[in-house]
Design a protein that fits this description.
alpha/beta; Rossmann fold; six-stranded mixed sheet; 32% helix; 28% strand; globular; cell membrane
């Protein structure tokens, strides 16, 4: 079953003070089946993050379709569905992990992960247990669990971001450089969680600078330079 299909995707950005419109990327076509993991590779500025943000509807594409097979709504175009439907999908079906953390400043680390689970309908008791498991898995120091994330280092914020997204076990998970500021041990923890989610049926789209991290994880690789989709064993090694 095809979970996600992108056809003739294109996105432009307007620089208003210069009166210019710049293309971010165009003519993007790929699809993936339920439970597959596709890695997107390409040079900086090639539009990799633009694709992920458009799937999550942070951006609206200028051309093309982003077809997603939703458990709630059936086959929908993420570029045209209503804001109410998109908010539902973000809450229950589609997760997004970026290099940056954007949360309420007066909510503790532990409560942020608990809130992610409460949104899914879990009880307070279950949410607390699962939140602490997730924080422990990503080796967040227990001394930080009841601290505010605006005091955290970049790596700590990223691990919290990953914990908040993965604890919900989304149907589709978007990973935008999820290991960018992590040490090797933390990268291993992220890989373990990705493998666990994938084994349980989560469909994933990811961007990684670390090509070695992708080996053995991705089923397919989309190359922004060639616009080709290949099996992971045929992965190219362009700068990403």
């Amino acid at each position: 079953m095809t979970m996600l299909e992108i056809t003739d995707f294109g996105k432009r950005f307007t620089i208003h003070h210069l009166g210019k419109t710049m293309p971010a990327t165009e003519h993007i076509n790929f699809s993936l089946e339920a439970g597959e993991f596709i890695g997107i590779v390409g040079k900086s500025g090639s539009g990799k993050s633009t694709i992920l943000k458009s799937i999550y509807r942070s951006y609206l594409p200028d051309t093309g379709k982003i077809l997603y097979d939703s458990a709630r709504f059936g086959l929908v175009d993420l570029a045209t569905i209503s804001e109410r439907e998109m908010l539902y999908l973000r809450k229950y079906e589609i997760g997004y992990v970026s290099q940056f953390l954007n949360v309420m400043p007066r909510t503790t680390c532990r409560q942020l992960v608990i809130n992610a689970l409460l949104e899914m309908g879990e009880t307070e008791e279950v949410a607390l247990i699962e939140a602490e498991k997730a924080l422990a898995h990503f080796e967040m120091n227990p001394k930080l669990w009841d601290s505010y994330p605006n005091t955290f280092s970049g790596g700590e914020k990223l691990r919290l971001n990953i914990a908040m997204a993965t604890v919900k076990k989304p149907r589709l998970l978007l990973l935008d450089e999820p290991t960018a500021s992590l040490d090797q041990q933390s990268k291993v923890r992220v890989r373990e969680m990705i493998e666990k989610l994938k084994n349980k049926g989560t469909t994933l789209v990811g961007i990684f600078h670390d090509i070695e991290f992708m080996e053995g994880l991705c089923d397919k690789v989309f190359d922004m330079q060639t616009r080709e989709l290949t099996l992971a064993k045929e992965t190219v090694t362009h700068e990403s």
